[in-house]
Design goal:
- The protein is of the alpha/beta class.
- The protein has helices at about 40-50, 65-70, 85-95, 110-120, 140-150, 170-180, 235-240, 250-260, 265-285, 310-315, 340-360; strands at about 25-30, 80-85, 105-110, 125-130, 150-155, 185-190, 210-215, 225-230, 290, 300-305, 320-325, 335-340.
- It has 2 domains: about 15-35 and about 265-360, Aspartate Aminotransferase, domain 1, CATH 3.90.1150.10; about 55-260, Type I PLP-dependent aspartate aminotransferase-like (Major domain) (Aspartate Aminotransferase, domain 2, 3-Layer(aba) Sandwich).
- The protein binds pyridoxal-5'-phosphate (PLP).
- Pyridoxal-5'-phosphate binds near residues 86, 87, 111, 156 and 160.
- Pyridoxal-5'-phosphate (PLP) binds near residues 85, 111, 156, 190 and 217.
């Protein structure tokens, strides 16, 4: 055996991120938009790209992009930070406010990357529980914040993988508790456009609150890798010190600005996906052998009354890939389906019906 250097001690037991990228005809496993970006956007973007100078670094402050995002939230560029996907925003938040001797509080089951990136940055992870219906119990959450005094408290709403939307009152109570322990509340709204309210409404200088969003889901730009957050100027200024200089390419900054001209198209798509989601939920609820959880996002989680993994496998064999959570704690035997086009959703429902029959459920 060849000897070689080992990674940091605290990283040895970590697993990488798992989500198989299989080559099947219907891919409903990573919550992307089923629609390509508008053609007019792609044309405007390509034209803009070819007019730029690539021997020069991109704008380090990404001012045009931040101003455009800020305008979309009726705020200013100094309350906006952008990075390569919202995962890099989360990483920058943890590099800035987490680290050794500090902790991050998460409410499981939730987006695995919050705890994973916390561990990568040597931030201790404190796991708390959601209720059986996957909502957060505000009283319990406040008690946890007071007890553990985490540097960062994460709330994902709508929550991935459950679809749960937290009421405004819960977020407000948690924000009060976080302020009292001098922490930071990070609300991950990757699916915020599908929900009926947004924590961006609460952002202000006096609130230790940062709301994270992305172009990956609603904006049909998962391949672009662009995310951002809205927060108080004092937090945004700290993030700017930590992130690598020139981290956003010229193409990316241009795309982020130009995409925002297509807000009306995006609103139409969101409405269409929500309508499809409601249709899929009704169809799922009519199936015997599964329990469907309410969703305010572009995906739906359901529990198989039987071997969830076998059902997932039987769906893959029929050319339909969904996300397998069957062996995750708290979501045992659960599968998550992204809402696709009408045709894709129908294929998914047919594959699920056949799989449930083949595997056998209670
Ligand atoms: C998909 C997703 C993200 C997106 O990450 P990007 O890096 O912006 O693609 C962030 N948070 C949650 C909860 C997600 O589901």
């Amino acid at each position: 055996m060849t000897r070689h250097i080992q990674p940091r001690d605290d990283l040895r037991s970590l697993d990488g991120y798992h989500s198989p990228q299989l080559d099947v005809s219907v891919r409903l496993n990573t919550n992307e938009s089923p629609f390509a970006p508008p053609v007019a956007f792609t044309e405007a973007w390509t034209a803009a790209i070819s007019a730029r100078d690539y021997h020069r670094y991109p704008s380090r402050a990404a001012t045009e992009l931040r101003t455009a995002i800020g305008a979309a939230f009726a705020t200013t560029s100094d309350r906006v930070f952008a990075a390569n996907g919202s995962n890099e925003v989360l990483q920058t938040l943890l590099l800035t406010y987490g680290g050794s001797g500090r902790s991050a509080l998460v409410f499981e089951p939730t987006y695995a990357l919050h705890a994973h990136i916390a561990r990568l940055t040597a931030t201790e992870v404190v796991e708390s529980e959601r209720r059986d219906d996957f909502t957060i119990d505000a009283t319990h959450a406040v008690e946890r914040i007071e007890r553990y005094r985490p540097a960062i408290t994460f709330v994902c709403s709508p929550n991935n993988p459950t679809g749960t939307v937290e009421p405004r009152a819960t977020v407000e109570s948690m924000l009060e508790a976080v302020r009292a322990v001098d922490g930071l509340l990070v609300v991950d709204e990757a699916y915020g456009d599908f929900a009926d309210w947004s924590a961006t409404e609460l952002v202000g200088e006096e609130h230790p609150l940062v709301v994270v969003r992305t172009y990956s889901k609603v904006w049909s730009l998962a391949g672009l890798r662009l995310g951002y957050c809205i927060g108080p100027t004092w937090a945004i200024a700290e993030l700017d010190k930590v992130v690598l200089p020139y981290h956003l390419s010229i193409e990316k900054q241009l795309a982020g600005v130009l995409a925002l001209d297509f807000g009306a198209d995006m609103a139409t798509r969101v409405a269409h996906i929500v309508e499809e989601r409601n249709r899929v939920v009704t169809a799922l609820e009519s199936l015997a052998g599964i329990t469907v959880f309410p969703s305010g996002a572009n995906f739906v989680l359901f529990r198989v009354h039987g071997d969830g993994h076998a059902v997932w496998q039987a769906m893959v064999e029929r050319g339909v890939l969904v996300r397998d959570f069957s062996r995750w704690p708290r979501v045992e035997d659960c599968l998550r389906v992204t809402i696709g086009t009408r045709a894709e959703n129908d294929e998914m429902l047919a594959a699920l019906r056949a799989a449930l029959e083949e595997v056998g459920v209670r």
